[in-house]
């Protein structure tokens, strides 16, 4: 029932969200098709809701009907109202879309409605052209005018100014339209008509009509459109021409990589247009539902596209994919790709997955205008787009890869000028010319839609050769992506071995149920095989090689025939296959490659569903570097490495293929049983299996294990050793270890003849040379190793030049130059520079090179054969006896490129030095102009990265790294802190210094810098003849080298500019700042004025009284006010004096200020006639932020007896107008210490964590709290005549169980408490921890207990004394004045008083009676439930503190006697323990969970700071007597929040909680 109601609620929210989304829809989307689709979806939802509601009504019971909110709140009526409102809105919007437009005010009037009124002519004065003439009032005065009024619906007709007819305007005049464009323009110009609306009395600039040209959308009439206009629409440049026949011609040029096509499309004015094939499709959203989109089917597009709006509407996930899209005459970029599932609106069983590039906009509305057409010549059919004739937005463009999958048999063709119909999976699509359009539309159109696109992924970007930040010298990454980690875990979990030791692996799919198995891969594989078969028939030699390979697969059991009963198995993938021929191979000339990347009709392939896995082997460059360290080297490769690994029987059907030996036979089905070349995971599975073999069986073979893990590059082994004996051992171990996994090594070779002879005894063939390669592409320039000379050599294989020599062919040849180590970098850099020159030339990929570039390329290409003479020793001279291995790097830059080269300097035991080239890297200088010093710095960065890479590979310590450059500026930059330089320099200097220290850089002259060869480039024929390049400068071979680290002159080049800010401050008059009260200020100024008056020579002797008069004080205030205003309102006073008013932008504008007779600035205001004093009419203006203003406010605060802001403002307004007075007075009140003292607010910090004693299960009263209650009156004895004395109640409460123990105490002394503590311990057991407040009796008792334990002479009972002597009682005091820290015992005191007051009343009891009563109260308190009492009778008895003391509540209703009952087999002690454990379990689950919530003090407040001045709140003292203190220490709790601080008050240091402190605002 609940699930159905939840479904109803979900349906309501879906309808509500759909309504909200519809209101947000853009106007261009609100078409009739869209709204009708919305209505259909809404009707379906309402029908589903109704059915579910009827089912609920039939199933619900009467009780549920009365209780469920679904029926009580009448959810059905609520949904019905929503449905009605939403559908009403949809129908209203649909009516607007289909409504016929009404006639505008420009619609012509009939002859009966026209009124012609002849008015007398008004003669206007002529204008001679002089502008001053219009200043004459006689001319500008209007003498005549006409006013025309009409009644009812009478309208005025304006005759046509061309043919004088009254039934139309000039814009609708046929005679005017038949004139030529030049005649029309001349008539409008000579008649002084508006070029936009063709009206009189105004120009086009003053025209108010919003109409525009229908052709170019500019501000002129369509009849005056220019003869030549350029229109850019939809990536197509269209040039339109108008002539007397009104024919619009559009010409577009499409250029791609292979050919050039000219497309001409003509539209005439006979209202014809071309329909493009559109279809409505359902697209799946991110939540699994479907939405209808309008798609355009385009055979001329190599990819599919979708709008950004549609992607957002469907909620699709975008994947980054940079692509360049070439259209007709232009190109654009796409940054994202989405994967979308489409479904036919007529056949829901047909689904297709499409990868679409995301663009902002695809095309304009299609068709261009509405088409009225009757398809009478076609039978009744289901159209893919029922509203194909209505212009609407295109959301999706489906390219040729989708078009070919949806075509079906069926084509209807009508008469000429009518569209054709093609049957597809989406329905029938219409395309072609339409003869007639709507009569209401314009007869001329120049919008051309040409769809021909090509997508090129930006995989090969030529700019990578010269972009500064595109190079990184990095070792293999040590961290794996999540997918790589999953691949590793999958391999470890699924890999097995057969009885012979051969490994069996599974294909690492990304998902458990890969999509590739549900496609049409079988049909594609058969089709591809038939094409391959035709090729083999034409080439008998190729056919024989191909058949031999297939027979070899079958002969070795690497492939098997699929059983007949499994041929039609659905979960299978067929792989197309083709041949790759390499005639230069010594083993297999032909290799069959299986195309696992072939996509099926779902757009997926086997490779797209496989995880590639992490890279497990070293880069080839690093492997060669390590290989050069060995005096004796060994090379070999594994025989058919991939095919030595079995594929699990569960996955072999993913590797099927079709084959037949002859064309007369039937096609047979096979499946591959081994790891297959061509699958994405094959390299990972092969290498990972080699490593797994070492992990499983490699422990007995230490030499082989290390080399298999580190010295293999795919199936090639490049390793070495020190001696022949060690080489023989390596050979033996590697063969033996690999044989355990079914692998075999072949083509062994070595530079040592002795070792090679030993190996030759066991094998038949060995290799003389080794070709180093990365992939299977045939190289023009190949790197080889000659074992006899132990040198590296280059082989050159130049194919013949084939004209024309295009950019594509040149780039292809350059990309084949194989120089991974950079040993011939001086020659290769010239090819890189040539690539940049090609890019700058701007020629197309298939355009022939210009003559100059062509000659340069032919010359360079011809010299490449000279590189065969280049030799480089493999061994760098390193062995175990060598004394030192150093790396020396050199960097240099030129205007064309920059380079870094590294040499190894080896010093053997005899002191002989050997220098060898290790590696080099070059970069072409960027196209953007960069200074030579900056390029030199880029070269230094490249060198630092290269040195780090080589040192990590060869394991050279950092101290043996040395860098050289010939740029003194770079060395100067490195000598200063990076922050000194501009960002470009600072970033690179910082990176260099992070890799190498400054003292590792030295200066080298340009003539000795080998990097100069690589930065400037040399011809290939000169590369061998440069000794500086191969061995570095001669002084590197010196035994004792000198490093040129002399002091270099500093440089200010690229130094960061220092911004110097000059701040001026206008301080107020120093006299004001000296005083803190207005009274002192005015009296000082008054005495100064009196002194000045006495010093002046006056004819009349002036006598002054001994006191200051009121006049003198007023004069002093006036002088202060004028000085203050002169400082803050100087500009306003100046404006008033010279202009009579302030500037409009002044903040005093609204006050209309003026200067009074004394020169004081006052408010003008509007109260001149008010019967109030002049000071209230015109108060004195004062600035807001002035010390004098603050003194005025302070004086007002004092005079109002510390009044509030409102009282102060009322007082101040009687004489002063202070700007922003409200905020200034509030601020002053907040800073007043006196006001703060009496309005102090304390801070309540976040409620802290419970102490350990409260949340730890432990014996009752082992950790307790103690407090006193009282006083109470106790009699000495019963009877009359005995006086009462004060007594007290001592309460002990268990911190864990809240059990209470009460003792009567006769006084508050420490001895009295100790006696009560003895009684408590005697009855409840040892108390290890005791908590209390800071009462004097507690403090004294704690001190005495410590003394007794230390001296071991207590007067207590022996047991307590022994307990205290062994463990003692730890006494904890809560902070002073913080009773909320001891809420547990305060609550116990409150409960005790509750019972005591109600039982005793006014009676006075004796000690025995009060003790008895307290024990009974104790029993009651220990019988209270610890958790909420349940109302269910089946629940157990509530847990109480008594359960932990005696096993049940202390106050209990009498029950039957079970003393004679037999107990179960459990012993009594075991039963007691079980009960106790059960109590503690219930304590944890029922009682402890109550403390999760904070019912008070739930927010954390800002903590006071050390040094803050605070008031210490005392509840029994008035605020005036509260102590002041300074915080000197904060005591943080376990949650790092301060709740207690230490204060210094007078001469004492006290501790208080922050809830008792009020921070004073004196710091401000």
Q: In words, what does this structure look like?
A:
The structure is a single chain. By secondary structure, the chain is α+β, with helices and mostly antiparallel strands. The protein folds into nine domains: 2-98; 158-226, no CATH class; 252-457, Acid Proteases (Cathepsin D, subunit A, domain 1, Beta Barrel); 482-767, HIV Type 1 Reverse Transcriptase, Chain A, domain 1, CATH 3.10.10.10; 807-1037, Nucleotidyltransferase, domain 5, CATH 3.30.420; 1071-1095 and 1108-1231, no CATH class; 1260-1416, Nucleotidyltransferase, domain 5, CATH 3.30.420; 1422-1452 and 1465-1491, no CATH class; and more. It has 44 helices and 54 strands. The strands form 15 sheets. It has a six-stranded mixed β-barrel with strand order 8-9-14-10-13-12. Strands 44, 45, 46, 47, 48 and 49 form a six-stranded mixed β-sheet that branches. A hairpin with a 4-residue loop joins strand 11 and strand 12. Helix 2 packs antiparallel against helix 5, helix 17 crosses helix 18 (724-740) and helix 29 (1078-1095) packs across helix 30 (1110-1128). The longest helix is centred in the first third of the chain and has 28 residues, at 32-59. It is extended, with a radius of gyration of 50 Å.
Strand proportion: 15-25%
Q: Whole-number radius of gyration?
A: 50 Å
Strand elements, count: 54
Q: Order of strands across the biggest sheet?
A: 8-9-14-10-13-12
Helix content: 25-40%
Give the end-to-end Cα distance, rounded to a whole number of Å.
Answer: 66 Å
Total helices: the number is 44
Question: What is the CATH fold-level name of the largest domain?
Answer: HIV Type 1 Reverse Transcriptase, Chain A, domain 1
What overall form do the CA principal axes indicate?
extended
Which consecutive residue ranges, at least 5 long each, have pLDDT under 50?
A: 100-123, 126-156, 228-271, 436-450, 456-460, 773-781, 1351-1367, 1454-1461
Number of domains: 9
Query: What is the CATH class of the largest domain?
Result: Alpha Beta
Average pLDDT confidence is 79
CATH architecture verdict of the largest domain:
Roll
Q: How many strands, what sense, and barrel or not for the largest sheet?
A: 6 strands, mixed, barrel
- Annotated CATH homologous superfamily of the largest domain: HIV Type 1 Reverse Transcriptase, subunit A, domain 1
SS-derived structural category: alpha+beta
GO molecular function: nucleic acid binding
Organism: Parnassius mnemosyne (clouded apollo)
GO biological process, one term: DNA biosynthetic process
InterPro entries: DNA/RNA_pol_sf, DUF5641, Integrase_cat-core, Integrase_H2C2, Retrotrans_Pao, RNaseH-like_sf, RNaseH_sf
